[in-house]
Backbone:
């Protein structure tokens, strides 16, 4: 158990809908990262938050957004969903921000199926 | 920009045989390299990491990897495979800003008895 909690584990929805994925980082970790794992694109970094502030953006679509709350949990919001958004979404957390010794610990993921 | 190439999307070995999973990286700065393992229906678990110092890195479950700068490689090995090693393995490099991991496409390891 990595200590990173993601809910829900599975999500089935329809095209055009909006969903929210939730992540609770390990106790004491200030950074939260979101990754998308799909068959065609592999594992891709989406976005990072550090202590409530956005720190880095990767290949995140404009239809997607995220935030980190004062209690450090994070939510990833996906809107106007398309079939191609079906994927496994991982959250990771780390204690520091952007250092080489920064280990990212991953949650079990949320599997999103868009029908 | 950094990138990672994992040679072989699927590797099959017999129980007790040597495991060798190949990873080559591209980086304009000294790389920080990682191997993660993903068991079915689970998240990514860190196996080992290289930051600086000793180039032979030991990880969990008997795995180790050697950083070879001249070959831009970070291959993962285990002397004797167990059935429980069957999983998908990802090599990753930390991006230059230190904000994100850049992953290879992954290698699925199958172990037969």
Residues:
């Amino acid at each position: 158990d990595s200590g990173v909690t993601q809910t829900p584990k599975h999500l089935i929805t329809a095209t055009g809908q909006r969903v929210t994925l939730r992540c609770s980082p390990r106790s004491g970790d200030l950074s939260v990262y979101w990754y998308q794992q799909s068959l065609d694109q592999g594992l891709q970094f989406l976005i990072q938050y550090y202590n409530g502030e956005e720190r880095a953006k990767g290949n995140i679509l404009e239809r997607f957004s995220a935030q980190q709350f004062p209690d450090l949990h994070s939510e990833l919001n996906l809107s106007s969903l398309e079939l191609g958004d079906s994927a496994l979404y991982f959250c990771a957390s780390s204690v520091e921000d952007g250092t080489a010794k920064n280990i990212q610990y991953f949650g079990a993921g949320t599997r999103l199926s868009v029908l | 920009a950094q990138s990672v190439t994992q040679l072989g999307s699927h590797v099959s070995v017999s129980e007790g045989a040597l495991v060798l999973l190949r990873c080559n990286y591209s980086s304009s700065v000294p790389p920080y390299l990682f191997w993660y393992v993903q068991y079915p229906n689970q998240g990514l678990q860190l196996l080992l990491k290289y930051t600086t110092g000793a180039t032979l890195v030991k990880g969990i479950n008997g795995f180790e990897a050697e950083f070879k700068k001249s070959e831009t490689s970070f291959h993962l090995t285990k002397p004797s495979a167990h059935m429980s090693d069957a999983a998908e393995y990802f090599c990753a490099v930390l991006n230059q800003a230190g904000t994100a991991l850049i992953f290879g496409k992954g290698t699925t390891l199958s172990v037969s008895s």
User: Anything to note?
Assistant: Residues 37 and 43 of chain A are 4 Å apart (CA to CA). The two ends of chain A are 31 Å apart (CA to CA). Chain A has a mean pLDDT of 93.
